[in-house]
Amino acid sequence: MRIFSKLSFLLMFISVTILSGKQMDNKLNLMPVPAKITFGEGKFRLKASFAVSVKGSCNDRLYPYASRVLRRLSGRTGLFFTQDFITKASTSDTAAFNINCIRAGEVKLNEDESYTLEVTPEKITLKAETDLGALRGLETFVQLLSSDAEGYYIPAVKIQDAPRFAWRGLMMDVARHFMPLEVVKRNIDGLAAVKMNVFHWHLSDDQGLRVESKNFPELTKIASDGFYYTQEEIREVVKYADARGIRVVPEFDIPGHSTSWLSALPELASAPGPYKVERKWGVFDPTFNPTLEETYSFFDRFFSEICPLFPDAYMHIGGDENNGKQWSKNPQIQEFMKKNNIPDNHALQSYFNGRILKILSKYGKKMIGWDEIQQPDLPKDIVIQSWRGQKGLANAARAGFQVILSNGYYIDLIQPTDFHYLNDPVPQNSSLTESEKKLVLGGEATMWAELVSPENVDSRIWPRTAALAERFWSPGSVTDVQDMYRRMEIISPYLEEFGLTHIKNQDVMLRRLSNDMDITPLKTFVEVIEPLKGYSRHSQGVTYTQYSPYTRAVDAAVPDPKAARDFKNQVDTYLKTKDEASYLALKLWLTMWKENHASLLPIINGSPVLKEIESMSYDLSELSSAGLKALEMLHSGKPVPESFRNEQAPLVERAKKQRGQAELVIIPAFIRLFNLPEAKTPKYE
Ligand code: ACM
Hints:
It contains 25 helices and 19 strands. The chain is of the alpha/beta class and about 675 residues long. The chain has an eight-stranded parallel β-sheet with strand order 12-9-8-17-16-15-14-13. Strands 1, 2, 3, 4, 5, 6 and 7 form a seven-stranded mixed β-sheet that branches.
């Protein structure tokens, strides 16, 4: 174990040296990158006397927000600021940081979020049309915090900033796995920190309806299994989000994805019940019967009660993946279609949507839904959320609908950050006309919750969502992937200020798996594995359900792990430059992994749940052992002999195999090191 810690320490030293080298070239660590930055001369030094004053006409949400920012700054610097809370009375002319907004902002689509932040060595000025712009500017301000030998400072800059897209959101599915209030709140804080402005709350699905209905108490009781938000809690979340400049868009997914509702309301289903709240994952048949007047009187009473809880103009009706099986088999529905000249199931769903739209309009709501709701006669103020592809987005915009993109932003599918980051709602080669492009309001990351629990959900959302926030906020020309990763890793730990658990819960989970033993060897291993991507975790001999454990090595592993990325980059650098620093760093990595299996075995032996990854840990040590040999040959200037390379091919093939629904992420780096034929780059849909 001792040699092991020494190696980790040396590795850390080398990576820190490389990283700080990178930071010296006057790069800011801002994420999202602002629209315009002009560098000034000098530094504004932070001292305990630092104080904030607010002038102009702001909504009250600004004062506590600014106070929280001041506390975060104090927390990061250890400075005992003399100012306590920022209030309406904080108008001192001598305060070094002045915030000025022209008018109170409203948390609604298309509200002005622009701001100008000017830092000189003497003072800082944040000006915004609305307090919402000021909130965004405050986040830029904390991200500017820097340090040198003298202490903490803010570099002199002038930033003029405004979002590229008006709709920048995260969808959180709380139906597949219920997410307690604190999970919701800490993620809303995370969204505000990266200037996102929509929390899309997926509140119902086959596996649960998560709101309290006072009109239909039995519905809540049966359809939620007791896991729901009270109306008071919903108001609390809406208020919490508003205080951070974030809209809450609720989703009730109908007419399909509705088994939970129909378990309480079997008489409204399109086939005879009874129904039980679904426990498995997939697309299921139960669907509301769109031909019954009782269906609409139910939704009228339901929405009459639910709409007022959510002040946002939009209500999401889902509408995806209705397989129509119950409709096609029901003679009464078929008769209704014939009588009303409804040619097919899509048209029948359109009829349903039209009736729901009338109800929503009555309660002052506009409609948003997934691709499938699109039909020509819907009013043009509805929004289509495109999950099936860029084509769907283009079709919607060409048909004159407002649209947001989610295809390519399915963060539950464990794809690498750069894949999401380079997926632009309006790419440079977009074939849309200028006026069609204006209909693209933005995008949303979607956190579907089949394979997560409250314990690890943050690690699927963060830090990748920070990179997505940049895609939605920053100019489309900001596409430097290496720099995105650099900044994302710097921002990531600060997100834990809000109680987000994306970094720390890995250790929590590994401690439980390690049975009180030192987690270091397990962590070293888990840092280079990833859960299987896409939907493939569902087809590897395990049937996951709502009540499965989400606590195994695969669940502690995170998407796009940094250690694996650093190793890949190091291999690439070494192969290009053959420099001594990369050689040494690689040697350390490989030695550590070579020896890790022996350290991990005692943990595995005391923890049967880890048995499933034993052979993968062994493969990692074998690969590393061969990697060390290849490295030595390369570094002595000798070519790696063909025979050596050929010997490694079966090892690489064996190491590629999934174990415990996880896979080693660093195989491509070994393939390069061994100079084996490159695997095809996977294509993500
Ligand atoms: C969806 O992923 N079915 C919207």
